[in-house]
Amino acid sequence: MGKTKTAILERKEIFLTDSQNKMIASGWGDDILVNTITEKIFYSSDGVKVRGYISYPKDNSQKFPCVIWNRGGIGNKGAIDTFTARGIFGQLASWGYVVFASQYRGNDGGEGQDEFGGDDVDDVLNLIPLAGEIENADTTKWGIEGWSRGGMMTYLTLLRNSNFRCAVLVAAISDFKSYAVFNDSKISIYKKFIGEKDFEEKVDERTVINFVNKLPNIPYLIMHGKSDETVTVEQSINIAEKFKKLNYQYRLELFEDGDHFLKKHRKEVDELRRKWFEVYLK
To answer: pTM of the predicted model, to two decimals?
Structure first.
């Protein structure tokens, strides 16, 4: 799937303290600790050294489908720490997947500059060839998931690579132009990361809702909290309406009192995610 030459440059298994492991077991389940491995890595993306994570089942007797997971935030705000990685990615691995995630260039000790949907989309695409270095990865089966800004990264990735079998979007930014206007106090931050030159044009390029017909027609699970004050629920409702007009396969789940992270609905969200990948990826 990926054309750009890439490789895992460094990889180190994550080991947590006993108290942290107890929290992982309590929050995500013992299966993560017993049956999965999560590693923090550096990998090459367009010649840039980028930080990321991989997580996979310990079972090497079979091949497992691959899932790319895209984080939210901007710069180091929203970067995934090792504890959270062990939980989030270990959970996916415990469901029977090999997981790949990027911190995006310029973050967590990585080289380059986070561009909030620019060349850093390459950092997502360049995770794909890494699967060839994981013994139990089925490199023919790919799913993708993104939360918040990571949802926008997911859509932008799908515009460039249609070989994913399904997608999961949570509180995803689909209309960056309206999102930027809604968060006008952060415009200076966006300009810092995206670049002031041709800023409006770059915003338009990241406004995926204008290019929905160019997205692959794969099963999309779209989830959003109605009380989300970070990314408004209309971001998901509006793209779902576009999918409906195009007769795309999608499911829209809105949570009445859900915040940006859907904290009150975690079990329900996790079960929806698990079933989606089970049906459309396995």
So the answer is: 0.96
